[in-house]
Amino acid sequence: MEDNLYGLMDWAGIEAVVYSEEDRPHDILGPHLVEEGLLIQAYIPSARDIKVRLLKTEKIYSMIREEEGFFAVLIPKVKRISAYTFIVTYDNGVTQELTDPYFYGQILSETDLNRFSKGIHYNIYEKLGAHPMEINGASGVYFAVWAPNAVRVSVVGDFNCWDGRRHPMSRLKDSGIFELFIPGLLAGEIYKYEIKVKGGMVVLKADPYANRAELRPNNASVVCDLNGYQWGDSNWLSTRKSVNYKKAPVNIYELHLGSFKKPGTDEREFYNYRELAPMVSDYILEMGYTHVELMPVMEHPFDGSWGYQVTGYYAPTARYGSPEDFMYFIDFLHQKGIGIILDWVPAHFPKDSFGLATFDGTCLYEHLDPRQGSHPHWGTLIYNYGRPQVSLFLIANALFWIEKYHADGIRMDAVASMLYLDYGKKDGEWIANKYGGKENLEAMEMLKHLNSIVKKRKDGAMLIAEESTSWPKVTGDLEEGGLGFDLKWNMGWMNDFTNYMKSDPLFRKGRHGELTFSMVYAYSEKFILVLSHDEVVHGKGSMIQKMPGNLEDKFANLRTAYGFMMCHPGKKLLFMGQEFAQYSEWDEKKEIDWKLLKEERNASLNQYVKELNSFYRKKPALYAWDFEEKGFEWISSQDADHSIVVFVRKADNIQDTLLVVCNFTPVVYENFLIGVPFPGKYKEIFSSDYERFGGKGHCNKRMKPSKHTGADGRMDSLSITVPPLGISIFSSTPLETTKESSKRNSRRK
C-alpha cells in the first residue's frame, strides 16, 4: 500500500507545499479520486500523527508521514468523495479534530472571475474579503484576495499561530484571485494575508476588503458578519427615493466623530457610535440641519490624518466601535429624519507597509512610475485607475457604503488631484496622457463609471465632488460629456468670501468683486456653499477669529456672513463648532468647546444659527430654484462704496419671493432707498441685528409699501433701515395680489 501511495504522489508539488511556494495547494492537498481509491493528503506543521475519520461510516484510517508535517493516506476501492475529518495529534501531545479546508473546491464562479477582471462586479465586496458562511453543512470563513503577482498567499491569524505554511490559498486560474474556505472559524477572528513575493520575501498585509479592523496601533483585519443587524429605517429609505434634493433644503453639519464630544469621566478616548447617535441627533434636530457629513470613518492608522489616509476602505474605524455599532448610528439618525453623508477618499492611499502599497510585491493598486503613482506633497500613492480591478475596488466601495450602511451621500475628497496628472507636481514630476494633455483620462472614466452605476440604482443617494478647480461639467450629465456628480463643493466661493470677510470693512469697497463674483458662475455647476474644516485649521483661524474688529464686531460680521451664505444660491455646509463661534482652531484631539455656550455672545450666535436654519427650511425661495437662474436676481450689486448688496430669491409662488439686504460695514443707514422687484408690500421677517442674537435692534418693525420712486434701476423702491454689519430679509406681497384680495373681501361683504 505504501508503495502504491508513493507512486501516486506529486513530489514536486509536495515540495512546493512544504517550502511554502505552492499557489494551487488544492491540486495537492485534500481528497483526490484516483484509480486505486481515494487519496487524501494534508500538510500540518508540528503534527506528530494524523488519522482520517470518514463521517459516513465512522471508519478511521491512519495517515502516513511522508515529510515533516506532510501526511497521506490511500483509502482503497472508494469511488466517491465523502466528508471526513482529521484527528491530529501534535508534538506537544494535544489532540484536535479538524475539518480539512482543502476538502472544498472552487467557490468563486467563472462569472464572478470574468466580471471582476472586467471591472464590472459591483458587489465584489460580497466575494472578496472574509465572509462567515456555511458550505455543505460546515460553518467557517471564506477568504478571497486579489494578488496576481504573488508567489504564494496564505491566511494567517491566532487560529494557526500566524504560520503561513498552515493555510495557503489557491490561485483561481489567471484571475489573480486566491481563495480558501477554513471550516470552524467564527466572526471575531483576527487575520492577515501572508504573501510570498517574487524574490522570496514574505510580507503581511491587512485585507483590502476587510469589513472590520483592529483598533490602532494594531492593524490586523477582523472577520465580521455584516448581515446580522436589523435595520429600522425602511420609511426613510423609501421616502429618500422620491425626494428631489435639487429642489429641497440641504443644510449640512460637517463633523468629526472623535472630537464632537469626548468622554469626560472615564479613561476612554472616544464615545461609541451607539452613544454618539443620540448626542448627534439631538443637537442636529435642535439646530435644524438636514444632514450630517462625517469626516472619513473608514479605518485609518493615524489620528492626525482625520481619516483622509485610509487603510481599511470597507471597515468603519474601530475607534468608535464595531460595524454593527456604526449601522446603529446611521439607523438612529435616519429614524430621526437626519441624512448621512460620508467623506470618501478615492484619490490616494498611504504607504503603510500593511496596506495597499506594493500589495503583492508589485505596484498593484498604484502606478510603478512615481511620476504617475505618487503625491509628493502628501507622501501618499495614487491609484492606477486604468486597471479594471483597481477601479472596481473603488467603485464597489462607494456602492458598499450606500448598500450596506445606507449612506445617503458620498462626498469625494480631492477630486481635482484625481483629474489632473500634474496636480501638486513640478515640471518633470508627471507624465502627460496619450494626447499630450494633463487630464487623467482613466480617473475621468472611473468617476463617470461610478456616477452612472449610482444613478441606475435610483435610490436617492447623492454623489458630491470636492473639486477645487474650474474643471467643466463636474455636475454635468454623463450623456453630455459631464462627470455626472450630483453636487459640487464651491471652493471658489469659499475662498473669495472668506478673504472678503477677513478684510477690514474700511477696505471692503476695494474688494467688492470677491463678494459678487460667485454669481457669474453660480449656475455652471450644482453647488454646495461650504465653510468646512479646511477653513479652520493650519493657522487659518476659526470662523470668528477670521472676522475683523473688536469682539462685538466679530460676532456681527459672522452673523452677516452666515446670513449671506444662507441666502446665496446653493446648498449649505458648516463645520462643527463654528455655529457657536469657537475661538480656537479645530483640534482633533480635543472636544469642541461646548462650554462656550454658557457665554452670552456665543449662545446668542448659536440661537441665531438655529433660527437661520429654521428660516431656511421654511422658505422655498432659499432652496427650490438653487440651480436655476430664475431663482436669483440682483437688485444692487455695484454699491461698493456702501459695501451693500441687495438681491431677490424666488420660488414657484411669487408670494414666496424674498428681498435680501446685506450691509458689510459697521454703519447704520436710515431711510436707505433700495429698488424692489415689483410694487407691493414688504415686511422684514428676519434680521441678524435682532437683540436676541446680540445685535443692536436696528430693524424695520412695520410692513412697508413700496413707492413709485426709481432706485437701483427699478421703477419702484423701498425706504428702509439698514443695520450695521447686518442682513435683513423681507417677505413680499405683490400689489396685484393685494388688489385682488381687497376685491374678494369687498365681494364677501
TrEMBL record:
<keyword id="KW-0119">Carbohydrate metabolism</keyword>
<dbReference type="GO" id="GO:0004553">
    <property type="term" value="F:hydrolase activity, hydrolyzing O-glycosyl compounds"/>
</dbReference>
<dbReference type="Pfam" id="PF02922">
    <property type="entry name" value="CBM_48"/>
</dbReference>
<dbReference type="InterPro" id="IPR006407">
    <property type="entry name" value="GlgB"/>
</dbReference>
<feature type="domain" description="Glycosyl hydrolase family 13 catalytic">
    <location>
        <begin position="254"/>
        <end position="616"/>
    </location>
</feature>
<dbReference type="InterPro" id="IPR013783">
    <property type="entry name" value="Ig-like_fold"/>
</dbReference>
<dbReference type="Pfam" id="PF00128">
    <property type="entry name" value="Alpha-amylase"/>
</dbReference>
<feature type="active site" description="Nucleophile">
    <location>
        <position position="413"/>
    </location>
</feature>
<keyword id="KW-0808">Transferase</keyword>
<keyword id="KW-0328">Glycosyltransferase</keyword>
<dbReference type="InterPro" id="IPR006048">
    <property type="entry name" value="A-amylase/branching_C"/>
</dbReference>
<dbReference type="InterPro" id="IPR044143">
    <property type="entry name" value="GlgB_N_E_set_prok"/>
</dbReference>
<comment type="pathway">
    <text>Glycan biosynthesis; glycogen biosynthesis.</text>
</comment>
<dbReference type="InterPro" id="IPR017853">
    <property type="entry name" value="GH"/>
</dbReference>
<dbReference type="GO" id="GO:0043169">
    <property type="term" value="F:cation binding"/>
</dbReference>
<comment type="function">
    <text>Catalyzes the formation of the alpha-1,6-glucosidic linkages in glycogen by scission of a 1,4-alpha-linked oligosaccharide from growing alpha-1,4-glucan chains and the subsequent attachment of the oligosaccharide to the alpha-1,6 position.</text>
</comment>
<dbReference type="Pfam" id="PF22019">
    <property type="entry name" value="GlgB_N"/>
</dbReference>
<dbReference type="GO" id="GO:0003844">
    <property type="term" value="F:1,4-alpha-glucan branching enzyme activity"/>
</dbReference>
<feature type="active site" description="Proton donor">
    <location>
        <position position="466"/>
    </location>
</feature>
<keyword id="KW-0320">Glycogen biosynthesis</keyword>
<protein>
    <recommendedName>
        <fullName>1,4-alpha-glucan branching enzyme GlgB</fullName>
        <ecNumber>2.4.1.18</ecNumber>
    </recommendedName>
</protein>
<dbReference type="InterPro" id="IPR054169">
    <property type="entry name" value="GlgB_N"/>
</dbReference>
<keyword id="KW-0321">Glycogen metabolism</keyword>
<dbReference type="GO" id="GO:0005829">
    <property type="term" value="C:cytosol"/>
</dbReference>
<dbReference type="InterPro" id="IPR006047">
    <property type="entry name" value="GH13_cat_dom"/>
</dbReference>
<dbReference type="Pfam" id="PF02806">
    <property type="entry name" value="Alpha-amylase_C"/>
</dbReference>
<dbReference type="InterPro" id="IPR037439">
    <property type="entry name" value="Branching_enzy"/>
</dbReference>
<dbReference type="InterPro" id="IPR013780">
    <property type="entry name" value="Glyco_hydro_b"/>
</dbReference>
<dbReference type="InterPro" id="IPR014756">
    <property type="entry name" value="Ig_E-set"/>
</dbReference>
<comment type="subunit">
    <text>Monomer.</text>
</comment>
<comment type="similarity">
    <text>Belongs to the glycosyl hydrolase 13 family. GlgB subfamily.</text>
</comment>
<dbReference type="InterPro" id="IPR004193">
    <property type="entry name" value="Glyco_hydro_13_N"/>
</dbReference>
<dbReference type="GO" id="GO:0005978">
    <property type="term" value="P:glycogen biosynthetic process"/>
</dbReference>
